[in-house]
Amino acid sequence: MKIGSSGRVIAQFDAIPDLPLRELRLSLNGGAKGVIQLSPAACTTASSYDATFTGQGGQTANGTVPAPCPLSALPKAKSKLSTKTGLSLKFASFGGHLLTSAKVTLPKGFSINKNVARHKGNLTIKIGTVSAKAITSKVSHKSGAITPKKRTGTSLTVRLAGKAISRSSHSTKAKTVKIKARFAFADGGVLNQTISVKAK
């Protein structure tokens, strides 16, 4: 096995029987010094590995294998928080991982008016291309948490109207607060993020 001038991994087998190949498995060392490196910038969209197979008779076949990015390499979700304009959180891509559930929790001192949030148009949630109705999503007044009903998709958008958010007089007056987000994926992975946002 070697690395070609184009940067592709080349594996050549000279002593295998002249029979159809059903499966090929290659194990490469990973980590920071691994043979294949994927930059964080490449993890903003689903990535994949492509391969070309050439037989003894010169026939070729092409294949593509999904290559989900490490969860630790995914960028932070984009978020805004204001008692006037509301909450906006957007995660454009999970790097090839299929999202199954999410939980978004407001900073301490902020709370959600469930009745207002459940009113049509005040809370919109979209996982992938599917909109989850606010009435089917769990909204907690005390913890300020929004938990969309389980759906699957590779992106997440949450919008909550400002009139559904209140800020107590005892809450911190800091201009920057932290929103907590927890994402779970079909492959068993879990991503916890603390997102710093400017509170107005």
Break the fold down into its secondary structure elements and pairings.
Layout: E1 2-3, E2 9-10, E3 48-54, E4 60-66, E5 78-82, E6 86-91, E7 99-105, E8 110-112, H1 114-117, E9 123-127, E10 130-132, E11 138-140, E12 145-147, E13 156-160, E14 165-167, E15 176-185, E16 190-198
Structure description:
The protein has one helix at 114-117; strands spanning 2-3, 9-10, 48-54, 60-66, 78-82, 86-91, 99-105, 110-112, 123-127, 130-132, 138-140, 145-147, 156-160, 165-167, 176-185, 190-198. It is mostly beta strands and 200 residues long. It has a domain at 72-198: Immunoglobulin-like (Sandwich), CATH 2.60.40. It is elongated, with a radius of gyration of 23 Å. The model has no long low-confidence stretch (mean pLDDT 78). It contains one helix and 16 strands. The protein has a five-stranded antiparallel sheet with strand order 5-6-13-9-10, with no helix packed on it.
User: Architecture of the domain at 72-198, CATH level 2?
Assistant: Sandwich
Uncertain residue ranges: none
- Approximate strand percentage: 35-45%
Taking all Cα atoms into account, the compactness measure Rg is: 23 Å
The profile of the biggest β sheet is: 5 strands, antiparallel
Which quaternary structure do these chains form? Answer: single chain
Strand order of the largest sheet: 5-6-13-9-10
Provide the CATH topology of the domain at 72-198: Immunoglobulin-like
Order of helices and strands: EEEEEEEEHEEEEEEEE
Overall geometry: elongated
**How many β strands by DSSP?**
16
Kindly, what is the distance between the CA atoms of the first and last residues, rounded to a whole number of angstroms? 57 Å
Q: Please state the structural category.
A: mainly beta
Name of the CATH class of the domain at 72-198: Mainly Beta
Number of helices: 1
Percent helix, as a range, is under 10%
Would you tell me the overall average pLDDT? 78
